[in-house]
Amino acid sequence: TNMLSWQRTAYHFQPQKNWMNDPDGPMFYKGWYHLFYQYNPDAAVWGNITWGHSVSKDLINWLDLPFAMVPDHWYDINGVWTGSATLLPDGSIVMIYTGSTNESVQVQNVAFPANLSDPLLIDWFKYSGNPVLVPPPGIGAKDFRDPTTALQVSDKWRIVIGSRFNTTGIALVYETTDFLSYKLLDGLLHEVPTTGMWECVDFYPVSTTAANGLDTSVNGPGVKHVLKASLDDTKKDYYALGTYDSETNTWTPDDPELDVGIGIRYDYGKYYASKTFYDQNKKRRILWSWIGETDSETADIKKRWSGVQGIPRVVTFDKKTKTNVLQWPVQEVESLRHSSVEFDKVKVEAGSIIPLDVGTATQLDIIADLEIDSKALEGTIEADVIYNCSTSNGAAGRGALGPFGLLVLADESRSEQTAIYFYVAKGIDGHLTTFFCTDKSRSSKANDVGKEVYGSIVPVLDGERLTMRILVDHSITEAFAQKGRTCITSRVYPTQAIDGAARLFLFNNATQASVTVTSLKIWHMKSASIHPYPL
Ligand code: DQQ
């Protein structure tokens, strides 16, 4: 332990110590969920990138295994970088990953489990013919990385790799039959000017009709394809919905104005290098993501660790809006709920704050439904049409119809608080626009930590009530509005609102509208167990 130990999370995945970034090669195999991750065995900063490996029966409690791969060949000596797993119909597994070579050239390599009858997949061997791909003509030696899970089109397999031409982000597609030799397909899967280098591209189908997830190779009627890129320039994960034509090998966005990198994000807080996999065990598509730190590097070195993984989220197509996916914490996280406190119908007057007596508030799962007073809503002619979470003065900026929501990781006197809230704007035409935000500006008395106000618009359809869910875990909050249409993950570093001193409040900083919290349920969360596998 050390002086900053209270910042460690209790039910998010994180290694015992040192640096972690991207999730790699997630999969379900013979009863176990496997998570590999970018890891520095030697320090709490990025470097010496190795593949950490942990397994779980439920995506929540983990057993740490020996490293799956270390940088030990000329083709990955500068790092075993990000990659993806493909489960083949014959039961075998192929892992394709990026190596940074002895000359820092980005190449793609292949590795296989040494023993497919070992459900833990402890030993891996690298293919003797590595690398299987080097940057093609016209592509920079340092702009060629992060292969996707392969998808099958008739008798061939395709992988997608992110890159760029100058400032245009691009996705290249390679075809293979044996995973050892590959052919670059003509043209591009997609490109978007000004978006820069595309890292960790993800490409997968979602069903527009069924609730279940789809295996990666599925296409046809009732299927849309999500294309996701992690923008190296801004460190943000953007996705878009569209259609994949496997004949021409092109993906077309449903709405060109919401194209990859210029439209929607998975998460408007700290959320990067995410990757999905199809869980054939429970027929769902699961999204993992690296949640980095927003404190200083000096603080990371002092606390001796950096980075956690988000709670895995189930991703589905939003059949109501048809313009976004829904993201929701895997149901297994609910196994950590132990005691709960329920409040019914709490009225929060305009300009007021209500403490919620829940005891210790560092590990919580909160679900709140909220309703704005309809008279105030109707009586307001126009309000805040140019609202913006990040620039409209956060939770302190008062309007007729917002902000209102919860203060988490707050101390008794609210010298520290993280506000998670809705804000409603109303146009002169009567049109309502709802925002979902997280304000970190007062989250910590420390001055070397990020204090952004995050957020974006959240679609709210006619007749829907406002609803949010918040997971609180010491130094992280994950917030989901309208069942996961808009999500915000934040790292927060309170100095006072820690352990037994952490409190929870409802607040309504609107000037006109009272808000009724029609239903509010708060669960205390147990800690997950994460420890070495007894080998
Ligand atoms: N992290 C890996 C790269 C990837 C980046 C290196 C994204 O493969 O592009 O650790 O965070």
UniProtKB/TrEMBL annotation:
UniProt entry keywords in alphabetical sequence: Glycosidase, Hydrolase, Membrane, Transmembrane, Transmembrane helix, Vacuole
GO function term, MF aspect, one: beta-fructofuranosidase activity
Subcellular localization: Vacuole
Entry superkingdom: Eukaryota
Main localization, broad class: other
Any one GO biological process: carbohydrate metabolic process
Residue ranges of domain Glycosyl hydrolase family 32 N-terminal in the record: 12-329
Keyword Cytoplasm: no
GO CC annotation, single: vacuole
The keyword Transmembrane helix belongs to this UniProt entry's keyword annotation: yes
Recorded coiled-coil stretches: none
Glycosyl hydrolase family 32 C-terminal domain mapped to chain residues: 332-524
UniProt similarity note: Belongs to the glycosyl hydrolase 32 family.
Stated name of the protein: Beta-fructofuranosidase
Organism: Aquilegia coerulea
Lineage summary: Eukaryota, Viridiplantae, Streptophyta, Embryophyta, Tracheophyta
